[in-house]
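testing teh design pipeline on a random one, pls ignore if ur not involved
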């Protein structure tokens, strides 16, 4: 059977590898519009391997994150990729947030996150000497990795197993012809497959619509902006320092993260980007912006959350506001300690009601399978998402036979 995977991010490459492992000798081609793999969400994130603390027990996020951590740890060991268990503290600033830590602890234990525990102020100081809070939840096995390096390794696996990764091949058309799916690309290629799997992140809704699927949920791009600690101040953070998340949002708030190379990132915030690939404030694509503003779910989302949106925008425009958010957790920080770092863009699915789609969402559309929502912790979960998607795709193919 021939498969085409659209999207050479970490999820798409993991899916292609899994197909080749399950069906040795089958034809698997990965198409991507960029000239390198893992260019967007895979290459623009904090590198955190999430342990599974936050996610609703029984959800795909919870199940696939925990499975994904185990698979990723094993994969990085086999391929000699740096994987550092630095540990995470989720810091409560007041008694209201402290009460929410108990809920997070229960959720983490329900999800099977190992060795999580509550810390008092002294325990937090022992773990992170420069952090302050009334209490914290410790996840000692939360890790960091370079997901871009993992993606490049997966691409090499695909080639070694007999698959092909075609870069610079933007998909512009998807048509069904009997038992085949025809894909047209911007560079004039025509690719024929028996099954197509869409793992296109920021553009997956558009490709799903090309394949005849529902244009909803729509992908709305949220830019996450970062600062980075100056090298001489990186000792302020030993591992990962996170706020207690707002349960209304899938975003985790400004946090401090030591990366595998020893640098420390501060962020991200979450501001609406004016382009699907709007990594800078000045990046504006009129078509993307009009598509966002014209989507019925957007005004409903904006009406419900405009105050939060305004606060995030102020944090984007005013460095002092951004620094103040980080100083809640590491009071010694000053504006002079932080320099701008590259931003990322999160592909967040929003339904017509204006609700942020929280869980991973995979949709079967005949011979086309679409990963419709896979934001964080998708990179952590990528190898497990691949197992799940391939099982569903192959089961759908068996039902047609």
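output:
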């Amino acid at each position: 059977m021939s498969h085409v995977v659209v999207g050479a991010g970490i999820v798409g490459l993991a899916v292609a590898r899994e197909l080749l492992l399950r069906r040795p000798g089958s034809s698997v081609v990965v198409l991507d519009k960029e000239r390198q793999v893992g260019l967007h969400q895979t290459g623009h994130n904090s590198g955190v391997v999430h342990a599974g603390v936050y996610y609703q027990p029984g959800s795909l996020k919870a199940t696939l994150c925990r499975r994904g951590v185990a698979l990723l740890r094993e994969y990085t060991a086999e391929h000699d990729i740096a994987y550092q268990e630095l540990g995470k503290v989720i810091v409560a600033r007041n008694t209201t947030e402290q009460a929410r830590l108990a809920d997070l602890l229960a959720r983490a234990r329900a999800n099977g996150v190992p060795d999580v525990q509550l810390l008092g102020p002294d325990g937090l100081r022992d773990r992170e000497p420069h952090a302050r809070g009334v209490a914290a939840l410790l996840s000692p096995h939360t890790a960091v990795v370079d997901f871009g390096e993992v993606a490049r390794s997966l691409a090499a696996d695909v080639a070694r197993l007999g698959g092909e990764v075609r870069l610079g091949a933007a998909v512009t058309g998807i048509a069904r012809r009997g038992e085949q799916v025809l894909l047209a690309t911007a560079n004039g290629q025509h690719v024929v497959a028996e099954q197509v799997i869409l793992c296109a992140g920021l553009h997956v809704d558009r490709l799903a619509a090309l394949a005849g699927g529902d244009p909803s949920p729509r992908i709305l791009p949220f830019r996450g902006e970062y600062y980075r600690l100056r090298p001489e101040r990186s000792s302020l953070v030993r591992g990962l320092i996170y706020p207690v998340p707002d349960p209304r949002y899938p975003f985790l708030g400004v946090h401090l993260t030591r990366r595998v190379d020893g640098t420390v990132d501060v962020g991200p915030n979450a501001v609406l980007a004016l382009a699907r690939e709007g990594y800078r404030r000045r990046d504006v694509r009129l078509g993307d912006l009009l598509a966002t503003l014209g989507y019925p779910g957007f005004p409903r989302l904006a009406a419900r959350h405009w105050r939060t949106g305004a606060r995030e925008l102020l944090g984007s425009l005013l460095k002092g506001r951004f620094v103040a958010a980080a100083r809640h957790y590491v009071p010694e920080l000053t504006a002079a300690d932080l320099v701008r770092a590259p931003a990322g863009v999160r592909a967040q699915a929003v339904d017509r009601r204006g609700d942020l789609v929280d869980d991973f969402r995979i949709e079967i559309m005949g011979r086309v399978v679409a990963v419709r929502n896979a934001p964080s912790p998708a990179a952590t979960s990528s190898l497990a998402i691949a197992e799940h998607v391939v099982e569903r795709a192959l089961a759908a193919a068996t039902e047609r036979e």
